[in-house]
Amino acid sequence: MTALETGKLENKSIANPDAAFDELHRAFAAFRETNDERLAQLESRMSSDVVTEEKLARIDRALDETKSKLDRFALNSARPRLGGGVESDAIGLQHKGAFGLYMRAGEAAGLKAMEQKAMSAGSGPDGGYLVPVPAEREILRRMSTMSPIRAIASVREISGASLRRAFSTGGPASGWVAETDPRPQTGNQQIADMTFPAMELYAMPAATQTLLDDAVVDIEQWIADEVSVVFAEQEAAAFINGNGVNKPTGFLSYTKSTQAAWSHGKIAYVVSGAAGAFAASNPSDALVDLAYALKAGYRQNARFVMNRKTQAAIRKFKATTGEYLWAPPATLGGEATLMNFPVVEAEDMPDIAADSYSIAFGDFQRGYVVVDRVGVRVLRDPYSAKPYVLFYTTKRVGGGVQDYDAIKLMKFGTA
């Protein structure tokens, strides 16, 4: 694939997603053909041609770029305008009007009156006012689209400071008895709880007074546009690598163990067979081991999570039948698959390196929980960065592993 063809691919993906989708499959067909040629060269003369390697790298980059553009197109097409619908709720209309007046001119009397009427604490310890419900829902919807772990995890809304879940550490005693046999007393069930606190996530977009004075500008839409991307980027990193200090606990931050030594509170891993790489012989066997380390009940809804570089390395793997293990999306807006399991691209997953945990596999809806405290707050600050007006926007988000047996990792090492 030449540079000119790659340029045409970019133009098609922006103007016509169907053409880009077709081009993605044509590019993957070219990738398979070139990689087969490279493998034949390795078998015949123990080394591949430099030109073939460069061609394969160019096609690989084109595949990544095309898939990224299709993902962005799907995101943009799913963004409805907040001001486009008719809001029938009178209270909602009042809140929208009072919020707009506060954002544009700093007049907070209307919002304060609404809070007193509703007997709700809309202003938190740090000040600020709740954004209207439609704007909050739009921010959360966009975050679900842009934050890969949020999109596949279980999401719970709370009104307090944390989510607490009870679970049984051993389960009650049980057994089989005949119809007339006496029932022995069962042992006491051991109950413990898991706590997932909601931490504060903030962004501070700035606006000119000219923008705020423009009556055509939808203020709710503007604030949703400004904060949804940065919120999604911050929480996406935390759900994977967060240390739990003033942020969620990422699933890579928990104690890890081999599958044989696994116990509650740990995330089990399988090894790749080589330090910082897949094994030289039958490298895809490690992926099979990873998939079958997960119990069948979890495997039905399981998916792989990795970054783009790791996915590029796996894209070259073939089954013994000659079929490639990685496949492009079967439909427009679909997901790429690996061994028929969906692949989630998360750029915050680590690159392949010695003893890195670069691939996760599991049922994340059962394994990881995202906690959203209801309400997105905005505090108007016209003083700190004059002549600009800052909007200190906060949301409380938490997260952590809720089922340690539902997620498995691949460690790129030998033990």
Could you characterize what this model shows?
With 415 residues, the protein is an alpha+beta fold. It has a domain at 3-77. Helix content is 40%, strand content 22%. The protein is built from 13 helices and 18 strands. Strands 7-8-18-15-11-14-13-12 form an eight-stranded mixed sheet. Strand 9 and strand 10 form a beta hairpin. The longest helix has 29 residues, at 17-45. It is flat and about 80 Å long. 33% of the residues are buried. The model is unreliable at 1-14, 83-88 and 119-126 (pLDDT under 50).
Radius of gyration: 26 Å
- Main sheet makeup: 8 strands, mixed
Beta-strand segment tally: 18
Low-pLDDT parts are 1-14, 83-88, 119-126
The N- to C-terminal Cα distance equals 40 Å
What's the mean pLDDT score?
Answer: 84
Binned, the helix content reads 40-55%
How many DSSP H or I helices?
13
Which structural class best describes the helix and strand composition?
alpha+beta
How do the strands line up in the largest sheet? Answer: 7-8-18-15-11-14-13-12
Percentage of residues in strands = 15-25%
Shape summary: flat
Topology readout:
Blueprint: H1 3-15, H2 17-45, H3 50-77, H4 90-105, H5 109-118, E1 129-130, H6 133-146, H7 148-152, E2 154-158, E3 162-168, E4 191-197, E5 199-203, E6 206-207, H8 209-213, H9 219-241, E7 255-258, E8 266-271, E9 273-274, E10 277-278, H10 285-292, H11 296-299, E11 303-306, H12 308-314, E12 326-327, E13 337-338, E14 341-345, E15 357-362, H13 364-367, E16 368-381, E17 389-401, E18 407-411
Parallel strand pairs: 2-16, 7-8, 8-18, 11-14
Antiparallel strand pairs: 1-16, 3-4, 5-17, 6-17, 9-10, 11-15, 12-13, 13-14, 15-18, 16-17
Helix pairs in contact: 1-2, 1-3, 2-3, 4-5, 6-9
